[in-house]
Amino acid sequence: MADSGATLARARAAHDQGRLTEAVPLYREVLAREPGNTDALQLLGRAMAALGQTQQAVRLIEAAAQLQPSNPAIQANLGGALSAAGRHAEALSCYDRALALQPDLAGAHRGRGMALMRVGKPAAALVSFLEAARLAPEDDQAQNGAGVALERLHRPDEARHCFERALALNPRNAEAHHNLGLIEAAAGRHAEALTSVERALALQPNQPALHGNRGTELLALGRQAEALASFDHALRLAPQDAAVHRNRGLALAILKRHSEALASFDRALELAPQQFDAHLQRGIALAALERYQESLESFDQALARDPNSADALNNRGAVLVRLFRPHDALPDFARSIALRPDYAEAFTNAGIALRGLGRYQEALNHLDRALSIRPDDVTATWTKALLKLAMGEFRGGWPLYESRLKLAHMQQLQRAFAAPRWTGAQPLAGKTLLVHADEGLGDTLQFCRYLPVLEARDARVVFEVQPTLKPILGSLAMRGALVGRGELLPEYDLHIPLLSLPLALRTEIATIPGGVPYLKVDPVAVRSWGERLAELPGRKVGLNWHGNPEAEKFSALDARSFPLAAAAPLARVAGVSLVSLQKGPGAGQRSEVEFGHALAQLADPLRMGPEEMAAETAAIIMGLDLLITCDTALAHLAGALGARVWVALQSVPDWRWLIDRDDSPWYPTMRLFRQRTPGDWPELFERVTAELRALA
């Protein structure tokens, strides 16, 4: 007996110090000598429970309870083992027996509270935790349990006080640190939450939930790369945690690593197929990858799990717009707004869809509603600018058009300037003004017309342009310096983005600077290409059908390019020779259409660059009788050269072509042909063909 007592004492000491692998064989040694030693049975049971072997723990402590059925401590310990095994109702019965035997047994009250929490009875659990804390004021776990119950009862301030009390009693209570972090996170105090979670992690560095929650707080603080590292650590410890896979996907999505994000969402759904948020985020990732049909299917899956999700409805509608189905998108936006009346993004998206349907006033109403909720919404402001300008309301449109500089793809191009911005108010006489091209090639070709206006105000102008345009813009009637982007700039006093000049100069439709041509082509190049064109019979009609696909990504409903096959009727017009001016993307369509042989290719479609545009494309345009083009830079080049040009426009085109006009106040030699039905290019080309036949 003496030997068993000493061995049991050594086992207890190891157990109390957390050295369970040492304690377990010592307990077994005692039981080998004394199978009925209740202390060894129940203590070994507690050790096995701590090691996760809950079924064995229950058997051991049940054996102790059979030997001493009136021992309240053994009943309480059996309750703990049963609760750890998920047998909470039986655990509660054990705790009740323990408390019937000893009503002031604080540990039984605390254990009872924990079991009650497991069965979803936080109010009853709170009573047990508070009683445990009254009986044992220094019990940090009782305080922590009370905090958890209070949090479930939506009493966060009282919960915080309990967690803080638990930590005052025991600063090494990792669970209390963690729970305090969760309370802070729910209140939006993410820096404080991160501090608490990291304190818990210092105490329990191998706890996967702590790494996962650390990642969540870092994500909320905008520290995505660190969050990703935490999620990866959590998954090394617990690779089957679907929520962490989902959160890892969120971090990757914010980092614009959408393919990797998609893989994380897919893994989350393998582990938890019913997880609504993973379906939602998967749809968003697929949309970012421009896989719109798959994205739509993911949003449908999300809505099957939560039909009243305003976010899922809004995102589904946005994808329908991207699929050129704005009419189908409107019910989604309406439902989203009904569910969340202050949902600014849904109002904005509805405005975009309505614009795509040509319902301009309704679109403006929705955008105004979005801006009343979120006045700094860049997308809403930008879309409203496009509507105002398209409707010819330049006075209201130009100030809103400045929001373009805050769009995500534009912000990447922003840089610091060494001089103040010119607003139009400061005198220009004797000043050097840097005008820098801030959008696409077509925009620069259209708005370079303003440079002589500035020089008429006695400004010394430095014009910074895309290198591709520098040779052709060398023909612009300006006295100042023309600089390619990336070249060393001379000193300047003021600066302004090129497309902010209409605002600074208060341009109205009636005051658009006129006079074409304002660009010219080297006569030698014109003569050279003219000789080649002269070999073709009849009228020479250029054709350009495809714009820059990258540029079309930034506006949901832009579909400016038309398929070359839609222009087939032009090849049947007698007395006309068609000439391809298509370069780069889309040039391959010439070999895919039946009339490709009738479409002359005078220049290399893969040769693009500064000299090509000035000495080749522009010179060919000058030798044509007519250019027919989609809405691309070539339309602006032809207009600036004063060449005859017909532009084929989608039903709701870019703002600069205004509404319901077949002419352009920007280019007097231009004629506009608009789709009458969205996407119906064949009907448009029937009209173009009829007009071409009359011309020929």
General description of the model:
- The chain is an alpha/beta fold and 696 residues long.
- Among the domains are: 308-411, Alpha Horseshoe (Serine Threonine Protein Phosphatase 5, Tetratricopeptide repeat), CATH 1.25.40.10; 432-511, Rossmann fold (3-Layer(aba) Sandwich), CATH 3.40.50; 523-695, Glycogen Phosphorylase B (Rossmann fold), CATH 3.40.50.
- The strands form two sheets. The protein has a six-stranded parallel β-sheet, with helices on both faces.
- α28 links the parallel β2 (460-465) and β3 (481-484).
- The N and C termini lie far apart (119 Å).
- The mean pLDDT is 94.
Distinctive features:
696 residues, Rossmann fold, 7% strand, 6-stranded parallel sheet, alpha/beta, 10 strands, Serine Threonine Protein Phosphatase 5, Tetratricopeptide repeat, 4-stranded parallel sheet
- The strand line-up of the biggest sheet is 7-6-5-8-9-10
Pick out the low-confidence regions: none
The CATH topology label of the domain at 523-695 is: Rossmann fold
Helix and strand content put the structural class at alpha/beta
> Considering the protein shown, what is the CATH homologous superfamily of the domain at 523-695?
Glycogen Phosphorylase B
User: What is the overall number of helices?
Assistant: 33
Helix content: 55-70%
Backbone CA Rg? 37 Å
Fraction of residues in β-strands: 5-15%
Concise synopsis of the structure shown:
By secondary structure, the chain is of the alpha/beta class.
